[in-house]
């Protein structure tokens, strides 16, 4: 396949490969925190190795970790779950996402999906033979998903709603009144809800994250995923989970066993340490992202780039339509000229070729340097416009 | 009001006989658990040191989807030296355990090639993964003594249109292996029918002789080899496996791996990398102990076993023996889950297994 023809995740991997060929690349695209995993978590993993925790790992995960997840989900998300029957531990949020889709959607089933969205949802639905029904969102209103628009696209084949707040890549959020409206829609049309809470700890400007399963009528029809990758800088450990009603989770457990059997024991003990250990590192990282977000938004303002104000997440989805360039072309140009990697919007949704995604996941100094370099390319494009 | 949609979803899953296949545990659940897929082995201190060193130096981030380069190279080298294959690093995909290897290879290769032939007796994880998404399958009959598909049955399956066949050698139930002559004949059949194979050789290290189909002439482009990375090194619960396959098959499996889990746990990969350095010096002694234990069991407990080959498992078919084991409090793997009712499998989990069983049965 030629370079230009690549799409979706393959396009991202092509850019990542090129970025690696430059020793001075500044990565403002990938969703991998620049922080290493906090030392107390690594120390706990070491202790688990020394204690030789090579025991049986059931597909749903070890009991102490499920207890810790239940406590976390209650404390942060206000969802009551029974650790014995309502949690399955997964190989990161990615596997959680894949399993949720397989659990709820069969061939020909439709799921309503806010667009743009994380492309793995599309890939997983394709694997299941399910059909994506898009509800477009835009930077003009901070990627707000309008319940009225959701209602319009529901058909007799619709089986589920995907609710991701904060959303990746747009950083759009769903407020409590809107979430209640979404649950009302799900109840009226008897739909399941797939909820992605992975950025629940990263919200800004007094926005309050709300999980659909925490609201009346939400829990019985929701599967909710989360993971430690973003909040605890544990991307390499591949540790996530799904919570939901026991009857559906029993099916998720069978799917997990069929897909990968179980989750690495050492990642599970590391996850246990993360969830039961000090919260200061998480808070420190969240505060840092908050500061960096301001740096990125200020730079975009200086460059005259329009964006949806990110009220959550670790990134901003910026509108580059004034350049007249396709986002893949622009990302390639910025990478080649400045050795700065941003992600093209078209990799998330073909119709979003006028956007780029930029993350806050670099040390502030490097972030500023990357933004300055990017400004050089963007200013030339503005002059020629 | 109860959700009809949810009820429909639950019914759909509950009727999925394949997905609901029970599987033996990967590792022992208690000291009397002989049903596990893998033996219990201690974690070498050097594996711990290397893993902690990698983690402390910041290897806590995403790594490349197919796995870290040195581990892929080590796996290729291991397969080439132990099984006579000719794999390069680019042929190797690191997985989150052998079950993920089964899932990826079965679904992604059959998507390209078409109908897949599955032995009537096979690890339950194979049937379970077939329950994920409908595939066109043909069942392949097995030999009653070894529980391996017969050459006649393989020919019949390929003649009736199967373009891909899943084979285990050693068998995950009996430990029996194909002879060199049989493997050459299978290669010939595959070539003759322009077909391909997934070859599970995860237990090959525990057999004295287990020729690999991938090492046969012309088979490098037609065979995907799967297994667990360095069994016996205490990494069972770390979930680390591999697929070695022709590059055109690796690409779609790699894409699906990205969709499913992005990459395999970094800690598991660094642990496996160090295990690769220690395996050759460690495993002969483990194998010797297991062999002694197995032989002791055969000699003393007088169990009625099926023809085997791998030293870490025994398949028993006598109802009386099965009852003796179960009444002594042992958990055994039910052969019915593999497709062989009336047979059970016990795993030789360590060098004291035989002594314990003999004492309990006395």
Helices and strands in order, then pairings?
The complex is a heterodimer of chains A (385) and B (362).
Chain A: H1 8-20, E1 26-27, H2 39-50, H3 63-77, E2 87-90, H4 92-104, E3 110-115, H5 119-128, E4 131-136, H6 147-153, E5 158-164, H7 176-188, E6 192-196, E7 222-227, E8 240-243, H8 246-259, H9 265-276, H10 280-303, E9 306-307, E10 315-319, H11 327-338, E11 340-341, E12 343-344, E13 355-359, H12 364-384
Parallel strand pairs in A: 1-11, 3-4, 3-5, 5-6, 6-7
Antiparallel strand pairs in A: 2-8, 7-8, 9-10, 10-13, 12-13
Helix pairs in contact in A: 1-11, 2-9, 3-9, 4-5, 4-8, 10-12, 11-12
Chain B: H1 4-14, H2 45-56, H3 69-83, E1 92-95, H4 98-113, E2 116-119, H5 124-130, E3 137-140, H6 151-159, E4 164-168, H7 180-192, E5 196-200, E6 223-228, E7 241-244, H8 247-261, H9 266-301, E8 313-316, H10 319-327, E9 333-334, H11 335-338, E10 344-347, H12 353-361
Parallel strand pairs in B: 2-3, 2-4, 4-5, 5-6
Antiparallel strand pairs in B: 1-7, 6-7, 8-10, 9-10
Helix pairs in contact in B: 2-9, 3-9, 4-5, 4-8, 6-7, 9-12
Could you characterize the architecture of this molecule?
The complex is a heterodimer of chains A (385) and B (362). Chain A is α/β, with parallel strands linked by helices. In chain A, 43% of the residues lie in helices and 15% in strands. Chain A has two domains: 8-30 and 281-384, Aspartate Aminotransferase, domain 1; 56-276, Type I PLP-dependent aspartate aminotransferase-like (Major domain) (Aspartate Aminotransferase, domain 2), CATH 3.40.640. In chain A, the strands form three sheets. In chain A, strands 2-8-7-6-5-3-4 form a seven-stranded mixed sheet, sandwiched between helices. Chain A has a four-stranded antiparallel sheet with strand order 9-10-13-12. In chain A, helix 7 (176-188) links the parallel strand 5 and strand 6. In chain A, helix 4 packs across helix 8 (246-259), helix 10 (280-303) runs parallel beside helix 12 (364-384) and helix 11 (327-338) crosses helix 12 (364-384). Chain A is globular, with a radius of gyration of 20 Å. Chain B is of the alpha/beta class. Chain B folds into two domains: 22-43 and 280-361, Aspartate Aminotransferase, domain 1 (Alpha-Beta Complex); 58-276, 3-Layer(aba) Sandwich (Aspartate Aminotransferase, domain 2), CATH 3.40.640.10. In chain B, 43% of the residues lie in helices and 12% in strands. Chain B has twelve helices and ten strands. In chain B, the strands form two sheets. In chain B, strands 1-7-6-5-4-2-3 form a seven-stranded mixed sheet, sandwiched between helices. Chain B has a three-stranded antiparallel sheet with strand order 8-10-9.
């Amino acid at each position: 396949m030629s370079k230009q023809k690549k799409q979706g995740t393959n396009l991202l991997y092509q850019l990542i490969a090129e970025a690696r060929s430059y020793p001075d690349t500044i990565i403002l695209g990938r969703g991998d925190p620049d922080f290493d995993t906090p030392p107390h978590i690594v120390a706990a993993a070491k202790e688990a190795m020394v204690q030789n925790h090579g025991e049986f790992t059931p597909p749903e995960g070890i009991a102490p970790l499920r207890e810790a997840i239940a406590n976390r989900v209650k404390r942060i998300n206000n969802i009551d779950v029974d650790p014995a029957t309502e949690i399955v531990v997964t190989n990161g949020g990615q596997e959680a996402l894949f399993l949720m889709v397989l659990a709820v959607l069969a061939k020909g089933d439709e799921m309503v999906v806010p667009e743009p969205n994380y492309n793995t949802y599309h890939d997983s639905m394709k694997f299941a033979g399910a059909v994506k029904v898009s509800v477009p969102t835009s930077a003009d209103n901070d990627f707000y998903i309008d319940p009225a628009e959701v209602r319009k696209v529901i058909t007799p084949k619709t089986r589920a709603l995907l609710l991701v707040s904060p959303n990746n890549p747009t950083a759009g959020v769903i407020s409590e009144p809107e979430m209640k409206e979404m649950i009302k829609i799900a109840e009226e049309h008897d739909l399941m809800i797939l909820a992605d809470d992975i950025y629940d700890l990263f919200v800004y400007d007094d926005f309050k994250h709300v999980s659909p399963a925490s609201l009346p009528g939400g829990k019985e029809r929701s599967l909710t995923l989360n993971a430690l990758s973003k909040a605890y800088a544990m991307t390499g450990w591949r540790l996530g989970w799904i919570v939901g009603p026991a009857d559906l989770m029993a099916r998720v457990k069978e799917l997990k066993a069929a897909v990968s059997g179980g989750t690495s024991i050492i990642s599970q003990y590391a996850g246990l340490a993360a969830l039961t250990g000090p919260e200061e590192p998480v808070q420190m990282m969240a505060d840092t992202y908050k500061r960096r977000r301001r740096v990125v938004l200020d730079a975009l303002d200086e460059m005259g780039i329009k964006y949806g104000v990110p009220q959550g997440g670790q990134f901003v989805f910026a509108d580059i339509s004034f350049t007249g360039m396709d986002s893949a072309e622009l990302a390639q140009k910025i990478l080649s000229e400045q050795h700065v990697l941003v992600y093209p919007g078209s990799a998330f949704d073909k119709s979003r070729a006028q956007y780029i995604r930029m993350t806050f996941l670099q040390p502030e100094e490097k972030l500023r340097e990357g933004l300055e370099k990017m400004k050089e390319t963007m200013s030339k494009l503005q002059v020629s416009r | 009001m109860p959700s009809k949609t949810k009820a429909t979803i639950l019914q759909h899953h509950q009727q999925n006989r394949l997905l609901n296949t029970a599987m033996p545990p990967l590792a022992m659940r208690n000291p009397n658990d002989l049903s596990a897929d893998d033996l219990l082995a201690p974690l070498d201190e050097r594996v711990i040191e290397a893993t902690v060193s990698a983690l402390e130096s910041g290897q806590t981030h995403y790594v490349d989807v197919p796995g870290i380069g040195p581990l892929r190279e080590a796996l290729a080298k291991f397969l080439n030296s132990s099984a006579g294959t000719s794999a390069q690093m680019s042929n190797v995909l690191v997985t989150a355990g052998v079950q993920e290897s089964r899932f990826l290879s079965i679904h992604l290769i059959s998507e390209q090639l078409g109908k897949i032939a599955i032995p009537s007796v096979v690890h339950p994880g194979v049937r379970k993964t077939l329950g994920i998404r409908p595939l066109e399958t043909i069942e392949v009959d097995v030999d009653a003594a070894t529980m391996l598909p017969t050459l006649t049955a393989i020919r019949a399956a390929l003649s009736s249109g199967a373009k891909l066949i899943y084979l285990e050698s050693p068998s995950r139930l009996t430990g029996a292996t194909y002879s060199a002559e049989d493997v050459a004949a299978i290669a010939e059949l595959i070539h003759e029918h322009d077909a391909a194979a997934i070859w599970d050789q995860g237990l090959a290290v525990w057999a004295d002789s287990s020729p690999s189909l991938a090492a046969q002439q012309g088979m490098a482009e037609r065979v995907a080899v799967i297994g667990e990375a360095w069994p016996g090194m205490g990494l069972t619960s770390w979930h680390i496996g591999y697929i070695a396959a022709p590059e055109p098959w690796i690409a779609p499996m790699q894409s699906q791996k990205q969709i499913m889990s992005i990459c395999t746990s970094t800690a598991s990969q660094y642990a496996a990398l160090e295990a690769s350095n220690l395996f050759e010096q460690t495993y002969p002694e483990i194998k010797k102990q297991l062999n002694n234990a197995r032989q002791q069991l055969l000699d003393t407990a007088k169990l009625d076993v099926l023809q085997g080959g791998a030293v870490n498992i025994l398949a028993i078919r006598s109802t009386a023996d099965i009852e003796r084991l179960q009444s002594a409090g042992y958990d055994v793997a039910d052969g019915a889950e593999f497709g062989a009712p009336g047979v059970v499998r016990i795993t030789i989990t360590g060098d004291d297994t035989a002594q314990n069983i003999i004492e309990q049965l006395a």
